[in-house]
């Protein structure tokens, strides 16, 4: 089975940039609506990831691989998409917390404190939890963990979407076609 002109990296970059831009736009919308720390709305990004992974991999399968793709190829293509999307979104996040919303870390600490108060924790427990969190809240470290989180969840979603995108060819037909050539 011969690949057409679209390389896996070029197609992966295309869909990765598309997904990255969607995630950035969604992040900006959450920021504008002051919903950056809303966990429920944060999970919507998983739906965007699943949709683009499915659509991108299916399109790549149909247009570049003659309609057939193995589970491994599908998973690999999904990982490439996530890699590019994660890099793009991480660059945006770094810009966001360093330039756009320089108070992001303090807002996050205040939000965390409110959540801990809702759990009826003592003042000492809250103070200890916040002091530990402050050590981890460095822009570069947050960006790295954000990228790793995107990569991890993207991989999990790619594992699932690949089940539905894979489409094996008929090995007999492929062998006969190879013999004819």
How would you describe what is shown here?
The chain is an all-alpha fold and about 180 residues long. It starts with 7 loop residues before the first helix and ends with a helix. The chain has a domain at about 10-100 and about 150-170. Helix content is about 80%, strand content about 0%.
Q: How would you classify the quaternary structure? A: single chain
Count of helical stretches: 8
The N- and C-terminal alpha carbons lie at a distance of 12 Å
Biggest sheet character: none
Based on CA inertia axes, which overall geometry fits?
elongated
Structural class: mainly alpha
Q: Could you give the count of β-strands?
A: 0
Note poorly predicted spans.
1-5
């Amino acid at each position: 089975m011969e690949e057409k002109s679209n390389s896996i990296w070029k197609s992966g970059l295309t869909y990765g940039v598309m997904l990255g831009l969607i995630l950035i736009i969604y992040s900006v919308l959450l920021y504008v609506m002051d919903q950056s720390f809303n966990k429920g709305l944060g999970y919507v990004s998983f739906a965007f990831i699943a949709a683009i992974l499915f659509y991108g991999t299916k399109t790549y399968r149909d247009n570049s691989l003659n309609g057939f793709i193995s589970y491994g190829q599908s998973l690999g293509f999904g990982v490439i998409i996530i890699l590019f999307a994660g890099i793009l979104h991480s660059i945006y996040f770094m810009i966001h917390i360093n330039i756009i919303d320089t108070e992001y870390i303090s807002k996050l600490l205040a939000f965390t404190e409110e959540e801990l108060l809702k759990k009826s924790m003592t003042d000492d427990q809250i103070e200890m939890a916040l002091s530990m969190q402050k050590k981890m809240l460095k822009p570069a470290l947050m960006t790295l963990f954000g990228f790793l989180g995107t990569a991890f969840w993207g991989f999990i979603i790619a594992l699932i979407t690949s089940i539905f995108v894979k489409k094996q060819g008929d090995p007999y037909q492929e062998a006969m076609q190879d013999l004819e050539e």
